[in-house]
Amino acid sequence: MKFSFKFKLFFAFIGYGLILVLLTQLAVFKIEEISLKSASIKKASETFQDRNEIFKSYIKDTNLKLSSIISSDIFRSYLKDTKNIKLANSLFLDIASTSDNIMQLRYIDNTGMEIIRIDREEFSSETYLIEKEKLQNKSSRYYFKDISDTDQNVFWYSKLDLNIEQGKIEIPIKPVLRIGTPVFHNSKQAGILIINIFMKNFLYELVNTPLYDIFLFDNDGDILVDSTHSHCWNKYIEEDKTIYSHFAEEAKHIIYNTEYFGQNLYSNKISLNNGENLHMVIKPKTDYIQKEISEHLNQLIWIMIGIVLISFPISYFFSKTPIRLKEQADEQKKDQDVLLSLFDLSDAVLFKWNNDENWSVDSVSLSVDKLLGHTQNDFGTGTITYIGCIHHDDKKQVIQEVTKAIENKVYFFKHKPYRVVTKDGDIKWILDSTVIVRNANNEIINFVGYLTDISALKNSELKLQKLSRTDQLTKVSNRMHIDDVLQSQYYRFYRDNELTSIILLDIDFFKSVNDDYGHIVGDSVIIEFAKILQSSIRKGDILGRWGGEEFLIILPHTNLDQAMQLANKLQKIIFQNNFSTVKHKTASFGVSTFERGMSVETLIDSADKALYLSKENGRNCVTSTQTL
Fold first, then answer.
1. Helix ranges restricted to H, 3-85
2. Catalytic residue among 250, 549, 550, 595, which?
3. For residue 362, how far is the Cα from the chain centroid?
4. Cβ(382)–Cβ(360) under 8 Å?
């Protein structure tokens, strides 16, 4: 059977076309394989940053506990009178009970003798106070010497090691990190504070991830913990497994470089200044890479089979199909343009963003320029991401709401109103209704959001809120708002050990102002008092009118001595001020600080008693609860 030249040319065209497609697909596959490995290493570096931040937060939380003890009035009172140890013991028990990871909390005096010691046997078990007879002298221990040589207000960190009892490693093993700081009293060192924290659960969670093998090792290359938990703490259990065993060719690069990008791994130094030079190696799991490659290969095979099966009819209709496809595409684009044009004519914005780390924008309506000042092109080129437009104080809320919606597998949800920042730095309030788009396998493809500017409505609402918590005469906080803030600070104190003090002050002989000059002048004096106080307190302090001529100032993160300093400063400023009509006025002050066992009512009552004592002592003075 003979074929015409046209048929031969037709089959040749198909054959060459198939070869070209095959070579193209193989080249694309190879590029994707290289790209996949490169992307996995970049993702590994992002994974390290996340875990390093978690590590720093874990350590910072312990540092804050030591700081809260040192700044505590109870502990400072104990240092003044060491016979009064009962309250100090309770303070240490309370602090240790706030975190399940505290293994041991101790105060050791400058002779090396344990004075207060709280123990916990296992992670999350009950804490208990060690009896005086069982306390030991630790003057010969390395950590006592090291912490004693540390500067004031500086934290010392031990090496990560295993807990040892009676000269032997405790079984089951208990990885421990010790954190300490020196204690000073009257400018002299009085001893040290030290916390032992359980690290096993934390470290195991730190290295656990389905996508990577993670190793934590010291400056000798000894593995402390790894994601398989098969070579942990090798230098203690005499197992000859180090970083050199796992990464022989790249071990030196890993150890001697702070940050290292390898062909198949990433390493960087952990933020812990304990002399161990702790590093983390993150290597994409072989199964993960192979799975991705296999999926790409399977896709390629099916693509080739499909090409073979449809090549003949496609070739037959090649002259007609492109025209028909173009007509369909034009129709779809026309429909899409009509839909987007509805948004372009309004203030609402239609966003379509991807399910990636930065919520990169896939498409957006032209009306985005009216809302944010950024153009379609800004988002299209990736210069601007949607998450980058959200106000930094609201990002956590928005991300949590998206995460919750994903976990609940909903199709549609609405955000609470949140703020966005425009190109010019203006802040706008947004109402965001979002659809989660999933494929047939219930995997998230992207999000489609309908954004409406509600700034005018929200600003009106905020103004009403401000009016509801503002004293109309003085324009400072009213009694209701001060009560709410005090309650919030009460919870922060008991939950996070956040120090809070208050100053209660009263204008001396104010009744005579109303009697001699009238209530209008009396009001002007109160207004002037409020302005003086507001301009003299710190940015984070909250001033409120407590009632009549009384004012109350809430001082977050402030101990009693710091509150006394501010109160004395205010007393002098008021004393030196020349008031408009009455010329000279003074005020009396009472200062109090939250302590364990106090309620909001007892805090205010103690400040009121201190204020009363100031009145009894001739007015125009400051009294703290320490003198009661």
1. 5-70, 73-80
2. 549
3. 28
4. yes
pLDDT exceeds 50 at position 1:
no
- Report the side by side order of strands in the sheet with 212-217: 223-226, 212-217, 279-284, 266-269, 259-261
Q: How far apart are CA 161 and CA 141, in angstroms?
A: 15
Task: Say if CB 373 and CB 422 are below 8 A apart.
Answer: yes
Cα end-to-end span (Å), the chain: 118
Instruction: Indicate the SS3 state at residue 125.
Output: coil
pLDDT tens for each residue of 11-54 = 554 555 555 555 445 544 444 454 556 667 777 888 888 888 88
What angle is formed at CA 472 by the lines to CA 468 and CA 474, rounded to 5 degrees?
Answer: 125
C-alpha pair distances (Å), 45 with each of 32, 39, 412: 20, 10, 33
pLDDT at position 442 is 84
Instruction: Give bridge partners of residue 129 from the DSSP assignment.
Output: 118
Q: Exposed e or buried b for every residue in 467-506, given b needs 16+ CB within 10 A? A: eeebbeebebbbeebbbebbeebbebbeeebbbbbbbbbb
pLDDT for the residue 31: 44
In this prediction, residue 347 carries a pLDDT of 64
pLDDT value, residue 252? 84
Give yes or no: 549 in active site.
Answer: yes
Evaluated on CA atoms 360, 364, 366, 371, the torsion sign reads: negative
Run of H or E including 451: strand 444-453
